[in-house]
Design a protein that fits this description.
Length: 82
């Protein structure tokens, strides 16, 4: 995932996708409030990095959120926009 690229929620994915992807995965962080907040913030920022910077996370939380965003990008929940 290129943090310097713009990302948006894939229009083909339902808003419940984050919760659904976590239902049967112990320790899943995809549906945590921090991740949900950043996924929503993607539409309001020029890049994923800008969205992350606006949240002022601790280094540990930021690393977890970036890992979750990478997974969401790899599975098509969020997509890079031109």
């Amino acid at each position: 995932m290129d943090l310097d690229a713009p990302y948006r929620v894939n229009p083909r994915v339902s808003p419940e996708a984050l919760d659904h992807r976590c239902e049967h995965r112990e320790g899943c962080s995809l549906g945590t409030p921090d991740v949900v907040r950043i996924v929503r913030a993607l539409a309001m920022h020029a890049t994923a990095r800008d969205a992350l910077d606006s949240a002022e996370f601790s280094q540990t939380t930021r690393a977890r959120v970036v890992a979750a965003l990478e997974h969401l990008a790899a599975t098509g929940v969020i997509v890079a926009t031109p």
